[in-house]
Design brief:
19 helices; Growth Hormone, Chain: A; two-stranded parallel ribbon
């Protein structure tokens, strides 16, 4: 069964294709984000230390490790998607994520098995990182190939809705456990495992959906032609595009991960909010951020991708230090919410279109690999290291240096946005 944008003659049919391709994405990102959402509870069990910052630093190191393996996932699953199909790669990635979540859910504590406890956590996180490394490039490719050219920005925003919704669901599960079912002590002792169990079960549902996905006609036509695909040497024929993906991702993903993932730990550890308030602020701001994604994506369909990226770069360049400095002294959940939401509005100029911008750069035979591998490299170096660098600088008494580090990275990406060609006009899809 194949499907293409030209064959989709109604909004209902198109939405069914998008739904089938994106629900699995939601489940994968739920599993991925559950780690950071629950880290403030399970860190003492795996890293016994009286200093909360040290505990979070250790869990952040494993979090970064999950990112460091993402290029390997982007390479292996990207090649697999370009050779065997988008559907096959999407199915495999959700299976691996399910296994990683199960391992974390049932991982023994340090008091029970000693160093085997953090070792289990490392292995499970590496599995999840490998899975997500291939997920992004393949899902971005799939979505871009089943949607019409004049609406690709909008549907790129829809893809990010599922990504953010996955994070929101992980926070929502934690909030329900905090407010309704479990005490603080129960959450720290064993309750943090529940979200991982839910994620593993949901991944089984995602596996069913993806096994029934239609393959894109774009890929089927290329496979029928007998042309080469999924080879690194083919990717090396596009060095400019690879450099653009890394450059445009570096600052954008760092900024994105700070205000969507690291922010919960920042609110609890630096601002001084309670763990419950930190989760609430993060959830509420993310909900508004999620709603903005399709709207911002649709705006890019009208004005182009490059103006959107430049707007993000300029705003982030001049507001990162003031926003984080003010936030560090906020001590009020409402003020924290306003500041975090402001940052996420700025981030949406980048996040809503980042998937389609990358997909538009590459031809069909290396599109999943071209999106997935360089993106995973940039995310590993900049997004995945953000919590570790932020917590390390705080531990040595120079947390404000982190604000300037983000600003420098954003400036580098801004230069890429300024000098790149308009992806919408030169799209290879």
């Amino acid at each position: 069964m194949t499907i293409t944008a030209g064959a989709i003659d109604s909004t209902r049919q198109r939405l069914r294709a998008v739904f089938g391709g994106s629900v699995g994405n939601l489940i994968e990102w739920y599993d991925w984000y559950t780690y950071s959402a629950c880290a403030i509870y399970f860190a003492p069990l795996f890293f016994p230390n009286d200093d909360p910052t040290t505990q979070l630093l250790n869990s952040a190191a494993i979090y970064a490790g999950g990112f460091l393996i993402r290029p390997l996932g982007g390479w292996v699953l990207g090649r697999y998607a370009d050779r065997s199909g988008r559907k096959a790669a999407l199915t495999l990635s959700v299976m691996l994520m399910c296994l990683g979540s199960l391992l974390i859910a049932f991982a023994p504590a340090y008091a029970t098995v000693g160093l085997a406890a953090p070792a289990t956590l490392v292995f499970a996180r590496l599995l999840q990182g490998f899975s997500v490394g291939g997920e992004y490039g393949t899902s971005a490719t799939y979505m871009s190939e089943v949607t019409p050219a004049h609406q690709r920005g909008f549907y790129s925003g829809v893809l990010y809705v599922t990504l953010v919704m996955g994070q929101l669901l992980s926070l929502a599960v934690l909030l329900v456990l905090q407010w309704v079912f479990l005490t603080h002590d129960q959450l720290e002792a064993w309750g943090w495992r529940i979200p991982f169990v839910i994620g593993a079960v949901a991944a089984l549902g995602g596996l069913y959906l993806r096994r029934n996905l239609p393959e894109t006609q774009t890929f089927e036509k290329h496979r029928a032609s007998g042309g080469r695909s999924g080879e690194v040497r083919l990717l090396l024929q596009h060095p400019r595009e690879v450099a653009i993906v890394i450059g445009l991702t570096a600052g954008g993903t760092l900024y994105f991960y700070i205000f969507t993932t690291y922010i919960q730990q920042f609110l609890a550890n630096t601002v001084g909010l309670s763990k419950t308030d930190a989760t609430t602020v993060s959830s509420a701001s993310l909900f508004l951020f999620m709603l903005m994604q399709p709207l911002m994506g649709a705006l890019s369909d009208r004005i182009g991708r490059r103006p959107m990226l430049i707007t993000f770069g300029v705003l982030a360049l001049f507001t990162t230090v003031p926003l984080l400095s003010t936030l560090a002294e906020a001590h009020s959940a409402w003020l924290a919410f306003v500041l975090v939401t402001t940052a996420l509005v700025i981030s949406s100029f980048y996040s809503s279109i980042s998937a389609v911008v990358k997909a538009e750069l590459f031809p069909v035979e290396i599109r999943a690999l071209g999106v997935g591998l360089p993106y995973a490299v940039a995310v590993s170096l900049f997004g995945g290291s953000a919590p570790f660098i932020g917590l390390w600088l705080k531990s040595i008494g120079h947390e404000s240096w982190f604000y300037w580090y983000v600003t420098v990275c954003v400036f580098g990406s801004l230069l890429v946005y300024i000098f790149m060609r308009e992806p919408q006009r030169t799209s290879r899809i």
